[in-house]
Design brief:
- The complex is a heterotetramer of chains A (292), B (98), C (569) and D (376).
- By secondary structure, chain A is mostly helical.
- Helices cover 65% and strands 0% of the residues of chain A.
- Chain A contains nine helices and no strands.
- Helix content of chain D is 30%, strand content 19%.
- The longest helix of chain D has 32 residues.
- The chains are: A mainly alpha (292), B mainly alpha (98), C mainly alpha (569), D alpha+beta (376).
- Chains A and C meet through helix 2 and helix 8 of A and helix 6, helix 7 and helix 8 of C.
- The complex binds heme-A (2 copies), dinuclear copper ion and copper (II) ion.
Chain lengths: 292, 98, 569, 376
């Protein structure tokens, strides 16, 4: 309540000697316009929290019920890629923050540069996601269609930074193969979880008459949540990159200045938010019961 | 209300802290802490998120109102999770526990 | 008071010599479809929600016709599609947007002395989202209909019903986007764009109510969006997230659905409550008794409204302990509503009560909402809900709050501000007659349903045992009368656009900024920035109020101003 | 129970045909009364003000009244107290409705699009018709074959959703107190013929009921049918009483706590057995390999119920003395008339079987052993 009372009504009558060209007609001042934008963006992010929240809820419930299946599914993901991508996204948050910093300083050229860095890092993130997704398709753990459990064939997983870089550019990794340490997956998972039984619908959809999907069906639920959550996250990344490209273009043309750069700030908020979502997704999806 | 400019130095420090946090997350995941694995993972994630919110997103320098709204967002999420989980925890038919 | 000229257009005349206002400032379809003026967008919304209301109403009449006979006049599949269409259209395409997107959109900036909402383009986008949502749902209806009920319970919706569910899911998702966009606009506008002197506790209660509504919209709607997305994806991929055959839990769907849909009932009623505060205050010329309590009770409803969703799940196999908690919280959330009702009643004390139509609607709202709300207490009582849930008792409960409450509030507001919006007054005699017809018809429709429900008549029944017929026939008779009342209202509103009396700036002697600009208002609402020096609902003789629209005799039809008054930008 | 009230005597209440129906109606009447009170209060005030303070001249402006803290507190606190009362009363009835008594007669219910199927332990099967004895507590153990249905008998004021899933039976109970015929409805929307999913429950006095029972059931009691299914489906090949440790013996497990391989303890109730048959992997008994196949799709809901009835019936006499400290008391409830009084009270909603904390002492069942499943 105090919060509300101390806030006074916005000043509005003061005459503005010069109207900033970017001041919309219905605002009285740049200050007011900026504030409105920031508040609007924060509220938008609140709705985003609740949007992802629905999936976090489903995740929490099913992880609680089917913990073993979630642990088994989680162990199929590559911890190397997960960690790498987390670092990439954090770095992109840093470059985004620096872009905003330079925008505040009115340093247009650096703004463009840091926006580009951010875009590049974001693209790397998506590239990794693409690799991971293809691997999951190859391993037949995409939850719709030809889902199989336990997996019969393992895709290549990196187990060092060099391999990751090679794989990023599409080359064959040197020493990561199903025999590498990450292969421990098959051994660990099959010993710990194999006894849980197979997926009754091996080789396709669960047949109509066999309704019990068994343990593998619950793993499938894990992968469903994995794809839904990371998929929606990736969609947000794509939108973010689109926005950044637009901003970089505008910044290059000199649209922004010390006084007027709120779009950069707002997009920054958005970008950081997407980063935060990943900060939670990473341990929740990649790190369930890793200590086998 | 003019905008507050955060020195670059702080950004780099936060970046460092976030990387350390990521490393810790991974390390803790490989240590068997029983039920505390998830607690540790979440605590670290919350700490990292707070760093991002506070510094990268400038909430530290924003109005109390902004702080309130950020809190509201997470509190609402918590309400949804907590109340729904109450159902699952007090319904006896679901007993697949880890 | 400073004389900041606001627009290039304000105060000018059209080529026909009419004062330039938001209606005649720009002609042609394009000037409407691409408008960023909140008032024009409100009219776009008015047109589209009315359209869907009539469609939804026709479906309602079809429901009632079917139930004339115990065997049901239509086949069950048809009937199931009818009530689903009725529920979905009325909730998502009519009542959720009705008051906020029409009256809120039109009035919120004017009432706080702003030129527009904070994000005009987003406002327009919101309307387009609404239209797209409407198209999706219409296509779903035409393509064979949806038969899940508006609640889409799984696994029926995901594994048994037809795949129009997918279209409907997407449609509602987009409709949700539309209300989120409106919500953002409201919150930001109220925070950042109040006129000088317009402090928080000078805000009209209409604004408080809309602010609270916006909070609910923002925090609830995204959950519905993701729930329906997951449902639609489940429908396509059958992975089992809500399908028990695959290890999913249908009750989780219910939790997620009601996490939005209970708060949504407050999205539907809070704005109408805001309207009622205005109706009562302005037509009794009294400040609202206990202003701060009424304002804060809106926030309380918004916040506590999020804690009670499980009262729709009392027999759904959720944990009984949680059921008990939810019941308790449901009673807690009833208290702020009670506070409002008592305060409105007390406001009438020693007022100067006018018998004009809006006031009658206001009183109708209080009476019907009271009954609806009190029967909410019945269904919140666990032992009773076990018996009456999913019966006509619940149907009657929510029609009393949604039709008797929200719809009456909406219509009351439409009458109060009709002159402001269109520049013409509605015909008072017909309006009163229609209101009385609606009131009688309404009670005849829905009161028998309480009895039906307690006797055990389940809802969503295409056919029923013959002993319920008498009450069903009564109800159908009532619906016919109610429909007639609605039809009269629709007709005279349209009639008045051409033939109504011209509306003065302040036909009611009301207080509030919207009465200090001309009817209809100029494009940027005021000719100069208003400075608020009075409290909320501080009534003053009409001559003493400045009109910041077109200068001229207050209380008289707006006068044109000399062209030099407006300055170029 | 005789019930005096205006509403009950009028046509506004359905028959009160169960033990808790009158109490539900009492609360209902209390709420009707409260509603009338507030409606009269507020309508009277409004009408009075409306007439007394009508506008007399078009320019009058009444004196503003700010408000009153006293009034505000009064109309916050008084409704709150009243509603606390409603809440407590409602919750009390709710607990009563969902606390399953332990001396109940089991009726198995299967909902399916769009019919109700019932089985009596004695073996009678019915569709959309149900015969019950008056004055006996009845426990309905319910499952669905497809979507959610809701078992609703208005005259009993009883309703509960039946949610699909291998791991839940929904349980609800009522004690009919009046003979006659009453409606059964499906109260949760379930598709095209939702409104056709209705039937009748016929409550009869004990003698008529016994007569009725002895009339049908050519194939023997549920447990008998379960026994032959146990053979047919090959359960017997593993679960033999002389099994060499490969498979757990099922004698006497019903109602007892079982230790799972992950250390968890589960009571072997109906839901558990059903799940063991449909998703055997969900819970693995400690010390055994998960080799039991799922019978999903091979057994109908009714057959599962018969298997359960059979497993219930095979408690060997030696196990009547349960080890103190584990499951107390008798391990079986079987045919009507047996009184496993020492069974812990079970409260359930939605198949949530919650074993209430035990206060009573371990008490070996000294009941005369009946051959379960036999008709009396
Ligand atoms: C505008 C919409 C609206 C509003 C405002 C409300 C208001 C309330 N509703 Fe309602 N409700 C619906 C719309 C609404 N509802 C709909 C659509 C459904 C069914 C959906 C479906 O299944 O399809 C539903 C269903 C529903 C149920 C589930 C029933 C069931 O399915 O079994 C419950 C249960 O608790 C409930 C409770 C309440 C309560 C306690 C209030 C309270 O907020 C009411 C508070 C108001 C008052 C109490 C009146 C003022 C009182 C006084 C002045 C007097 C003194 C007060 C006291 C003594 C406390 N509602
Ligand atoms: C805002 C919400 C809203 C509104 C306004 C209404 C309005 C009405 N509703 Fe509805 N109703 C719901 C929301 C609403 N309803 C919901 C959510 C459900 C649950 C659905 C489900 O179970 O899934 C429901 C269910 C429902 C049922 C139960 C169906 C069942 O369970 O089997 C019934 C039955 O009587 C009913 C009746 C009515 C009636 C008679 C009106 C009347 O008030 C309607 C009055 C209006 C008119 C009659 C139209 C007037 C206009 C004209 C006549 C003009 C014609 C003009 C031209 C052609 C130019 N409604
Ligand atoms: Cu079965 Cu409705
Ligand atoms: Cu509700």
């Amino acid at each position: 309540m105090a919060l509300i009372e101390t806030e006074t009504a916005p000043e509005r009558i003061e005459l503005h000697a010069e109207h900033h060209p970017h001041l919309a007609h219905h605002f009285e001042s740049m200050e007011q316009q900026r504030e409105a934008g920031t508040l609007g963006m924060w509220w938008f992010l609140l709705t985003e929290i609740m949007f992802f929240g629905g999936m976090f809820l489903a995740y929490t419930v099913y992880r609680h019920i089917y913990f073993d299946a979630f642990a088994a599914g989680s162990n199929v993901l590559s911890i190397w890629w997960g960690t790498f991508n987390t670092a990439v996204l954090i770095a992109s948050s840093l470059t985004m923050a620096l872009a905003v910093f330079h925008a505040q300083m009115g340093n247009s050229r650096k703004v463009v540069r840091f926006l580009l860095f951010t875009i590049i890092l974001g693209t790397i993130f998506l590239r990794v996601k693409y690799i991971e997704y293809s691997d999951k398709f190859e391993e037949h753990v995409f939850p719709a269609g030809d889902f199989r459990w336990p997996i019969e064939h393992e895709a290549n997983r990196p187990n060092n930074v060099g391999d990751m870089l090679l794989m990023l550019i599409g080359a064959e990794p040197l020493n990561s193969s199903p025999q590498g340490p990450e292969h421990a997956f098959s051994v660990k998972v099959t010993t710990k979880y194999a006894e849980k039984g197979p997926y009754y619908g091996v080789g396709g959809q669960v047949p109509e008459e066999v309704q019990d999907p068994g343990f593998g069906g619950h793993v499938r639920m894990y992968f469903w949540l994995y794809f839904a959550m990371t998929g929606f996250h990736a969609l947000h990344m794509i939108i973010g990159i689109g926005l950044l490209l637009m901003l970089a273009w505008q910044a290059r043309k000199g649209k922004f200045s010390r006084e007027y750069h709120s779009y950069i700030e707002l997009t920054g908020l958005y970008w950081h938010f997407v980063d935060i979502v990943w900060i939670f997704l990473f341990p929740l999806l990649y790190l369930v019961d890793r200590h086998l | 209300m003019s905008e507050h400019i955060v020195p670059k130095k702080i950004y780099y420090r936060i970046f460092g802290a976030l990387l350390v946090g990521t490393a810790l997350t991974v390390i803790f995941a490989f240590i068997n802490l029983g039920n505390f694995n998830i607690v540790a993972a979440l605590l670290i994630a919350i700490a990292k998120a707070l760093l991002v919110i506070t510094f990268f997103m400038h909430v530290k320098y924003s109005s109390r109102l902004t702080k309130l709204w950020v809190a509201v967002g997470f509190i609402w999420l918590f309400i949804m999770l907590a109340i729904t989980m109450t159902d699952y925890l007090s319904r006896a038919w679901l007993v697949y526990r880890p | 008071m400073s004389m900041t000229p606001l627009t290039a257009t304000a105060g000018r005349l059209t080529s026909e010599g009419e004062p330039l206002n938001y209606l005649n400032n720009g002609h042609g379809l394009k000037s409407w479809l691409l408008t960023k003026d909140h008032k024009r967008i409100a009219l776009l919304y008015l047109f589209s929600v009315s359209f869907f209301f009539i469609i939804g109403g026709i479906f309602a009449l079809l429901i009632r016709i079917n139930l004339l006979s115990p065997e049901g006049l239509f086949n069950p599949d048809t009937y199931n599609r009818i009530f689903t269409a009725h529920g979905i259209i009325m909730v998502f395409l009519f009542l959720v947007p009705a008051v906020p997107a029409v009256l809120g959109n039109f009035l919120l900036p004017i009432m706080i002395g702003a030129k527009d909402l904070a994000f005009p383009k987003i406002n327009l986008l919101s309307w387009y989202c609404y239209v797209v949502a409407g198209i999706f749902l219409t296509v779903a209806l035409i393509a064979g209909g949806i038969d899940t009920g508006w609640t889409f319970y799984t696994p029926y919706s995901t594994s048994y019903s037809n795949s129009n569910v997918l279209l409907a899911g997407v449609g509602i998702f987009i409709a949700g986007f539309s209300s989120i966009l409106t919500g953002i606009n409201f919150i930001v506008t109220v925070h950042t764009m109040r006129a000088p002197g317009m402090t928080w506790f000078r805000l009209p209660l209409f604004i408080w109510a809309h602010y609270a509504t916006a909070l609910v919209i923002m925090l609830g709607t995204p959950v519905l969006a993701i729930t329906l997305s997951l449902m639609a994806l489940e429908r396509v991929a059958h992975v089992g997230i809500f399908d028990p055959a695959m290890g999913g839990d249908p009750v989780l769907f219910q939790h997620m659905f009601w996490f939005y849909s209970h708060p949504a009932v407050y999205i539907m009623v809070l704005p109408a409550m805001g309207v009622v505060s205005e109706l009562i205050a302005n037509l009794a010329r009294k400040n609202i008794f206990g202003y701060k309590f009424v304002a804060m009770s809106s926030l309380a409803i918004a916040v506590f409204g999020f804690l009670v969703w499980g009262h729709h799940l009392f027999v759904s196999t959720q944990s009984i302990y949680l059921g008990i908690i939810f019941s308790f919280l449901s009673y807690a959330v009833a208290i702020p509503s009670a506070i409002k009702v008592f305060n409105w009643t007390a406001t009438l004390f020693k007022g100067s009560i006018s018998y004009d139509t809006p006031m009658i609607y206001g009183l109708g709202f209080i009476g019907l909402f009271l009954i609806g709300g009190m029967t909410g207490l019945f269904v919140a009582a666990l032992g009773i809900d076990v018996h009456v849930t999913d019966t006509y008792f619940v149907i009657a409960h929510f029609h009393y709050v949604m039709v008797g409450g929200s719809l009456m509030g909406f219509l009351g507001g439409m009458h109060l501000w009709w002159g402001k919006i269109t520049g013409r007054m509605y015909p008072e005699y017909w309006a009163r007659a229609a209101m009385v017809i609606q009131f009688v018809g309404f009670n005849l429709t829905f009161f028998p349903q309480f009895i039906l429900g307690y006797l055990g008549m389940p809802r969503r029944y295409a056919a029923y045992p013959p002993e319920f017929q008498v009450l069903h026939v009564l109800s159908t008779a009532g619906a016919t009368i109610l429909g007639l009342g609605m039809l009269i209202t629709i007709i005279y509103f349209i009639w008045s656009l051409k033939n109504g009396e011209r509306a003065p700036a302040n036909p009611w002697g009301a207080s509030g900024l919207e009465w200090r600009t001309s009817s209809p208002p100029p494009t940027e609402n005021f000719l100069e920035t208003p400075v608020v020096t009075w409290e909320a609902y501080e009534f003053a003789p009409i001559e003493t109020m400045d009109v910041l629209g077109y200068p001229g005799d207050p209380g008289k039809p707006s006068q044109p101003v000399p062209a030099e008054h407006g300055t170029e930008d | 129970m005789i019930h005096h009230s205006l509403l009950a005597m009028s046509w506004m209440l359905p028959e009160q045909a169960s033990s808790y129906a009158p109490e539900v109606d009492h609360l209902y009447e209390f709420l009707v009364g409260t509603t009338i009170f507030f409606c009269v209060l507020i309508f009277a005030a409004i009408l009075f003000f409306f007439v007394k303070y009508r506008r007399r001249s078009s320019d009058e402006i009444p004196r503003p009244i700010a408000g009153s803290m006293v009034l505000e507190s009064a109309w916050t606190i008084i409704p709150f107290i009243i509603s606390l009362f409603m809440f407590a009363w409602g919750a009390k009835i709710y607990l009563q409705e969902y606390t399953i008594p332990n001396d109940a007669l089991d009726i198995y219910v299967v909902g399916k699009q769009w019919m109700w199927k019932f089985q009596h332990p004695e073996g009678q099967r019915e569709i959309n018709e149900l015969h019950l004895p008056v004055g006996r507590k009845i426990r309905f153990i319910m499952a669905t074959e497809d979507v959610i249905h809701s078992f609703f008998i208005p005259a009993f004021r009883m309703k509960e959703d039946i949610v699909p899933g291998p791991n839940r039976y929904t349980t609800v109970w009522a004690e009919p107190t009046m003979t006659g015929q009453f409606h059964i409805f499906c109260a949760e929307y379930c598709g095209t013929s939702h409104s056709g999913m209705i039937g009748w429950v016929t409550v009869m006095n004990d003698r008529d009921y016994q007569n009725w029972l002895s009339g049908g059931a050519a194939e023997g009691s549920m447990a008998d049918r379960g026994a032959s299914l146990f053979q047919q489906l090959g359960c017997i090949t593993c679960h033999r009483s002389d099994a060499q440790g490969q498979c757990p013996r099922l004698e006497g497990i019903y109602g007892k706590e079982q230790l799972m391989s992950d250390g968890q303890k589960v009571v072997a109730d109906d839901s558990y057995i059903r799940e063991s048959v449909l998703s055997p992997l969900a819970k693995i008994v400690a010390g055994y390999q998960p080799i039991m196949p799922s019978f999903q799709g091979q057994v109908s809901e009714e057959q599962i119920q018969e298997l359960i009835a059979y497993i219930k019936s095979i408690g060997p006499p030696e196990t009547t003395n349960a080890t103190p400290g584990t499951m107390k008391g008798s391990t079986k409830i079987s045919a009507p008339g047996s009184n496993p009084a020492a069974k812990p009270p079970i409260m359930t909603t939605g198949g949530a079987t919650i074993v209430a904390p035990q206060t009573e002492k371990a008490q070996p069942a000294q009941l005369p052993q009946q051959t379960p499943g036999q008709n009396q």
